[in-house]
Every structure is written in structure tokens, then in C-alpha cells.
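Appendix B: complex inputs.
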Amino acid sequence: MKEDDLNRLEHSDEVKRIVDISKVLYDKDKSANTPRSFDSLMKEINRREGTPRKVAISPWWLVAACLIGVLIGWNFPFEDAPKNEKLALNDTVYITEKHTDTIYQQVQVERKAFQRKERREAVSTRQMEAQTITPPVVRNEMSLPDLKSIRPATSGRSLAQENFPIHLLVSL
Amino acid sequence: MRIFRSYRQDTDEELMRRVSRNDTTAFEEIYTRYAKRMQGFFIRMLGYDIAKAEDFTQELFLKVYESRSAYEEGRTFSSWAFSMAYNLCKNEYRHREVVETHELELNYDSDSTEEPAFEKIYDQAVFENQLSISLTKLPADQLAAFTLRYNEELSVSEIARILDCPEGTVKSRLHYALRSLSQSLSMYNPIKP
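Resulting structure:
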């Protein structure tokens, strides 16, 4: 019954006009009053939840930032910039560059010559030791020319022939 | 790629599924679609108090976001949101009843019972003004049913879900609302002989 009454009312011209005008007013109210921004809503949500607002970085902003970075880098004279090479100016020291290098030089060690030298030193040390332990008389006898030596002297004669009489005289 | 994806093609329900997974962009799309509608509904339901309607719109979307995980799949977002909006209005009416102990406060100063001047009877502006006044004088449940049916153009079954009552009750409320408006505006309506 109510449904029939409702249909009848809805189709009457009077009610149709009321409905149409109320719709126009409703739409006018909606368009005249803009709701608050979404950002303010999110701020309120974050405030209630107690979380800091996330910074939303648009990918387009990232691309733009990269392009600006490339342009700045392209035009910046990194290599051609004149360097201030002055180290001191009016009692003020400007340290422009501190650089320390360690240079290693490769040296070739002569192995054989080194060994020979070592051996020579060892022999002379042994001789020195022999001299220190030999008594003077024995040393004198040791210094006498070997008569049995057949080694020729520089003059062509044997060593004994060359030196013997003088040695005798000196010892006597 | 998700960053460049637009949600404009998605349905409200798909967007709400994303919102329940903390997708802020989907929530922004929902807000863009519904903020004006909801604010218009609040303006009508709260007696043309614009500042209060703005507050209520923000409050409603805060509630939508807070209860995003409670959103039931399969339910239309519009009826869910309107039922929350209507509950907010009902709370406001209760609050007003306690504070003022009388009907909704009207922002319009003119008295509808006053006899209009003859030349103004058929004036469109006067009729619109009187219609606004008459609407604010309707009981809240009838006003909600009227606004949702004839301004938001929702079906009777949807309105029944929003107002949480049987469809017959919705029809009854609509009938009373139309009859009441028709009677109060009869002297301003040029169509009536």
C-alpha cells in the first residue's frame, strides 16, 4: 500500500519539481564547498597514530634531481680549475697538498763476490789467531825460508839461495 | 611499475582492499572520489553548517582509515561509508538533544510560516530557500532517506542497509518526507493549482 502511495507521489509534478530542485541545491552545495586537502587528513591520521609523516618522493622529482645533478657535473670545471700553489702568504701557511711517497730501489747483490770476500776475511782471521798463539821463537823459525822449497824466487834463484846468508847473519 | 600506476580505473572495493594493506595512494583516490559527496551529505544533514560538515567529513575518513581492516569484502564501499556518515550524524543529533533539548538548530532566520508576498510566490529563489528550510525541518531519518534516494540516487535496498532498517521502513520514511515537503511548499509551488 505504502509502495503504491510512494509511486504515486513520486510521479506527481509537484513532487518531481521538489526532487529536481533539491538535487540542484545539493549539487550546488557540494561544488561550492571544497573538502579539506588530503594532506591535512593524512597529517591528522599520523598525529593520531603517533607516527611521523612519511615523505612521499615522487619518481619525477628524483628524475629531475638526477638531471640537474648531471648538468651541474657536466659544467663544473673540475680539471681546469687553477690551483693555488702558494704555500705561504703573509705569514699564513696554506697547505695545498700533502703527499708522501716511499720509493723502493731494487739493488742487485753480487752473490759470488760477496762469498769470496767472506771467505777471505775468514782466512785472515784464522791467520791472526795463529799469530797470537805462536811463541816468538817458533814464529822466527816459521819465518825462516824453507830450504827444501823448490819454488823459484823472482830473480830466478831458489828462495834459500837468495836469502839464507843474510838471515843467518841477522839471527847471530 | 607500481609507483607510476594510476588507480582511477579501479573500483571502490579494489581500492579498499589496497587501503587495508596500508596503500596510501589508494586511500587518496577514495578520498578524491567521495570527499565531496560526503561533505554534501553532511551539509544537508547538519542543517547547512559548513564548518561542522568539513569536520565531519574529515572525521568520517579518519574512521574509514582506522577501520580499514574491518571492511567487509563484497560490501559496496558507498553504502559502508554512508552508514558510517549517518551514524556520525545520529551521534550529533543525540548530542544536540542533550545540549539544546529541542530540534535541530536552523541557520536560516526566515520563518516558513510567514505569509509570502504575492509577487514572490512563484519566485524560484524563494522556492529554493523554502525548500532548504523545509528539508532541515524533516526528522533525521526521513531527511537521510530523502537525500540518499533523490540526491545520491541510491536504491531502496542500499538505503535500507545504510540506515540499518527494512526496505519497507525506508519506503515509509520516503513517503512521509515527500508528503511533508509537498505540504509545506504547496503555497510556493506554481505547479499546484
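The two ends of chain B are 64 Å apart (CA to CA).
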